[in-house]
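A protein record pairs a chain with a discrete description of its three-dimensional fold. The following entry can be read in just this way.
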Amino acid sequence: MKVDLFDFHLPEELIAQTPLEQRAESRLMVLNKESGKLEHDVFKNIKNYLNPGDCLVLNDTKVLPARLFGMKEDTGAKIEVLLLKQLEGEEWETLVKPAKRVKEGTKIVFGDGLLTAECTGEAEHGGRNLKFSYDGIFYEVLEQLGEMPLPPYIKEQLEDKDRYQTVFARERGSAAAPTAGLHFTEELLDEIKEMGIHIAFITLHVGLGTFRPVSVDSIEEHDMHSEFYQVTEGTALLLNSVREQGGRIISVGTTSTRTLETIATANEGKFVAENGWTNIFIYPGYEFKAIDGMITNFHLPKSTLIMLVSALAGRDNVLNAYNHAVEERYRFFSFGDAMLIL
């Protein structure tokens, strides 16, 4: 299957550079995955499409302010560091710019010495492993010195760090936000619960592989990145109960989808409590075992994310919906509008 099958024309001005003032005021496109029929609405009305007994599954990962700006201790040269994942103790896999200036043994200083790092070796994709030294608590130092690692297509500065964080973010560890969840407010979640709709939480720490372009011509040759996930006993019990009682399981975002499908695939359609790493790659032809519907944003052309959405709703339906979204001037990508697939 060719990657070019998932291309579409997207005017650059439709890439949302800043979040809306009110999270739940973003637009909502509703796509019927069987008929391809489209409806246009506002996200705060999403509750009108849900039934008592359904379950929304949210990813409660929390984005680290993982972009750091420092300088080489010996030369004063400027170095930018992006934390990807913690290895052991104080050692992290990172991306650094310019990478050629950072070799094993290089020391980097951040925030007038509040934080220092030493390069302990190279990582995959040109990354570097850094060992950090500091006084106090690492995450508090990071809150003080770090910036949110916004996707490469967002050029504007983010005024409020919390706007690249869901209101239910709890578990630190992501290099990017699970953006489908950004549309929810505490009030909207309360209204949904009051209707008898269940809310379940999973954790998947989003890696930067999310933004890595597919560099091969055939989808089957693409090497999917691995991400850490965790599902609790309580969530597994709730999801199995919803399924048994005929409720729909609606994942919020591609990250929730990939987590649920990973677990259901390994357990004959059942949900169990577990944690681990997943590199599941979902594209048309995949048979869904976990979810009945999905809330998601509008994704990049030729990305693994639009392939996943096409697996659920059909490529022709999705590309038709995206072309309508362009015509109707929907906002795209992380700070953009939402789609509900049912």
